Amino acid sequence: MTENKKSLAYICFTLILASVLWYLLFVIKPFNFWIEMSISIFILILAASFSKNSIFVFKKIALKDILLGIFSAIVLYAIFYLGNIISGYLFSFKDTEILSIYNNKAQGNLKLISLLLLLSIGPGEEIYWRGFIQTTLSRILGENKGYILSAVLYALVHIITGNFMLVLAALVCGLYLGWIYKRKQTLTPVIISHALWDLIIFVLFPLI
C-alpha cells in the first residue's frame, strides 16, 4: 500500500471514529454534553497525532492573523444570522432543530461553557478538521479538492445526528473556515475565528 493510500485509509478510520463520537454526543447523550464534546475532540486529535502528517500547522503568529480571526468570526456570525432568517421561510422544522442544540446549554453554567468553547472545543475542531483532515487531503489531492472534500466530510459526519440544520451549519462552517485556512496555511486565524464564533453564537448572541 502506498503512503497516500495509507493516509487516506487512516483518515477514513478517524472519520468513522468521529461519527461514532458524534452519535454518542448528539443522540445517545450519555453524560454532560460540553464535557463529552471536549473529550470527543481530544480523542480525535489524539488519533490524528498518530498519523505521519503534522496536525499543528502554525506559522509565526502575526497580528494580521489575529485580526483576521476576530473579523472572520464576526462575518461568520452575520452569515448565520441572515441564514437563520432565510431558513425560517424555507424549513418549517428550523426552530425545533436549532433549539435542540441550544437546549444543551442547560447542562452547564455559561462560564464553564464559554471556557470550553474558547479553549477546547473551537480550537480542537480546527486542529482536527483543518490541521489534519484538510492538510492531508490537500497534500494528496491538491489544495482545491482537499478543501472542498474536507468541508463536505465535516458536514457528512454530522448527518448521523439526524439534525438537518446542524449538517447545513457544518457545511457552511467547513467551507468558510476551510477557505481561510487554504488561503493562509496557518491554524491561527481559523482557531480564533471558530472559538470566538462559538462563544458569540452559543453564549453572547444566540439565534434563538
Could you outline the blueprint of secondary structure elements for this entry?
Layout: H1 3-28, H2 33-49, H3 63-90, H4 94-102, H5 110-141, H6 143-157, H7 164-184, H8 188-204
Helix pairs in contact: 1-2, 1-5, 2-5, 3-8, 5-6, 5-8, 6-7, 7-8
Question: Please, could you describe this protein's structure?
Answer:
- This protein has 208 residues and is mainly α.
- The chain has one domain.
- It has 8 helices and no strands.
- Helix 6 runs antiparallel to helix 7.
- The radius of gyration is 16 Å and the shape is globular.
- The chain starts with a helix and ends with a helix.
- The relative contact order is 0.18.
- The mean pLDDT is 95.
Mean pLDDT: 95
Share in β-strands: under 5%
Percent range for helical residues?
over 70%
Structural class: mainly alpha
Keywords: Hydrolase, Membrane, Protease, Transmembrane, Transmembrane helix
Transmembrane segments: 7-25, 31-50, 66-92, 152-181, 187-207
GO molecular function, one term: endopeptidase activity
GO biological process, one term: CAAX-box protein maturation
Brief summary:
It contains eight helices and no strands. By secondary structure, the protein is mainly alpha-helical.
Identify the notable features of this structure and list them briefly.
208 residues; mainly alpha; single chain
